[in-house]
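Co-fold these.
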Amino acid sequence: MCSRVQRYKLTLAYRGTRYHGWQEQVYCPTWKGPIPGDGSGLPTIQSTVTAALKDVLKHDLELCGSSRTDAGVHAKGQVAHFDTPMVQIPPEGLRRAVNARLPDDIVIRSIEPVDPTFDAVSLTDRKRYQYLIWNDADKPVFCSDLAFHRWQKLDFSAMQQAASFLIGEHDFAAFSKPGHGRTSTVRTIHELSIHVRPPKVVIGVTGNGFLWNMVRIIVGTLIDVGVGQIDPQTIPDILSSRDRRRAGKTAPAHGLYLHWIRYRNSADYSPGGVAQFLHEDPS
Amino acid sequence: MCSRVQRYKLTLAYRGTRYHGWQEQVYCPTWKGPIPGDGSGLPTIQSTVTAALKDVLKHDLELCGSSRTDAGVHAKGQVAHFDTPMVQIPPEGLRRAVNARLPDDIVIRSIEPVDPTFDAVSLTDRKRYQYLIWNDADKPVFCSDLAFHRWQKLDFSAMQQAASFLIGEHDFAAFSKPGHGRTSTVRTIHELSIHVRPPKVVIGVTGNGFLWNMVRIIVGTLIDVGVGQIDPQTIPDILSSRDRRRAGKTAPAHGLYLHWIRYRNSADYSPGGVAQFLHEDPS
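Predicted complex below.
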């Protein structure tokens, strides 16, 4: 009887370790890229959250996530949207009910009713990722699945220099996994910073969008610079070569965090800067 | 041919989540308490470290751990000793070889040759434990197995008051699990502190020794005080009752960390204060 549909925006955090990434096999129609293969037998974040929402709302729904984080990648501020005819639900009650049905490693930070024109996928303005390196002789026993262990001494000054060449608008073809299906490989990086707080090194990167594996290849390249395998002065050449083989290794998924997503016409983004990231978590 | 035996002292850290505690079914002869039952099918820390040591040293050995941490309990500075006729091993080389054979959640922090009279079990002077509470409305997605989630508002002032009654020499029978097999239930607590750094609450306790579940019962009692279920003024009565039923709940194992152990005639203990604990880790 009620033809009105309410759209909700979800902000969620998850530890990606036990999941085959965000993506479900079901295709999100607003997403233009390829569908990554599955076959791991692991659940996805999307299917797990969708099941919890369905259990509360008692109807089918499609959950469209902004970033299709890869297997093992974590999120502190993933954003998704879904529609429901159940217009009378108090958002905080819905949030608690869904959280009670989610496993320990996924949490809904906020649920808010939004205009039906809001689209978590296509209306993104900026995204921020963080990458956590555990730079110590000993491996990180309490966070082996949450940080990339590098025991080598890193030359942070050379890494900063390399990073400075990547800031701005560039063709990042050399820093993306081929076959990403995007029409353009030009992206703008607004911020690329390296925060050192031994034994942690946090690399933060904000941009208007990222190609497939782009953050992990940037981080892997900065690490290669840090251990002396790549000369920071060659970064402009690597960029202009558009050749993936010229850039550094792809850093593993388990050090990567989707930090926040900001939308057009909105100052809104998931809270928490690097300082919070460093202090607040066993995360 | 070589009848000389070298004793080594090990300091190790581990995430206890995947283990059935420290203890192996094999009995450590210097330990006087009961042997906890097993039957979980999970490996123990002791058996895992023993296997790695044997693989390097190529002989049987007995690893005597100072604290038999329960299933799920973590350690930042557990201490153990073992004897080997292989007297020519450089300790740092041995440490690296053993670490390379250990899983991601156990690490040997140090291996040092010690006098054969050193005994990790019987010569302890002081031990320190930490208990991590995640005091937030949302559960801790990145450390669900490393902190105890309490969403309730805690009255820290009442908790501090209750803690002050527990410092000093007392009969802690009311704060121990019955059947612990100790002849005396009198222990001295040198320090019992509550550090609040939202959303983390760290309870640190240093003592000359602890009864079975004593730290977890103290923490559970302080939490019961914090939520108003126990009046802090009743702590002296609870102590003198020697009745376990009068004290609070037993806090779960997964928030507990064995922090360090200090030995007689030694200023040596595993490094790292609360500040390090709070800042350095996803741990």
